[in-house]
Amino acid sequence: MQQPEHDRLRIKRVYELPDKQDGRRILVDRLWPRGLTKEKASIDLWLKDIAPSTELRKWFDHDPARWHEFKARYLDELKGNQAQLQLLKQELEKGEVTLVYAAKDEAHNQALVIQENDWLFR
């Protein structure tokens, strides 16, 4: 029996050491993380286009006061991005997935929005 998606979808900062329990490591940033080589990042798939648009990312600027509005706007973007959501769903069907992101703020980032709204790719 397969685990539900939310049990197989983890999130982690890309700067944390990769772990074999991560499963497939999917980068969900539009820009490559600073200071990391592809080998160190240990990324299996880069879903650059699932990340927030450049405009939204710049507007948000990781300001916690804008978090709720950011989530709403980002969810709107995600709903219109079925191709990327389908790719993520296919990866989840294979097994464990860890969404990796570069943001310093672990409580306010796009990977968390995706994880909390797994209904998007069911």
Secondary structure layout plus pairing:
Layout: H1 5-8, E1 9-13, E2 24-27, H2 38-41, E3 45-46, H3 54-60, H4 67-79, H5 82-94, E4 97-101, H6 110-116
Judged by helices, strands and strand pairing, the structural class is: alpha/beta
Kindly report the spatial arrangement of strands forming the biggest sheet.
Answer: 1-4-2-3
How confident overall, as mean pLDDT?
A: 92
Broad shape: globular
Q: What can you see in these coordinates?
A:
The structure is a single chain. By secondary structure, the protein is α/β, with parallel strands linked by helices. It is 39% helix and 13% strand. It contains 6 helices and 4 strands, in the order H-E-E-H-E-H-H-H-E-H. It has a 4-stranded parallel beta sheet. Strand 2, helix 2 and strand 3 (45-46) form a beta-alpha-beta unit. The chain is globular.
Brief overview, please?
With 122 residues, the protein is of the alpha/beta class.
Short key terms for the protein model shown above:
122 residues; alpha/beta; four-stranded parallel β-sheet
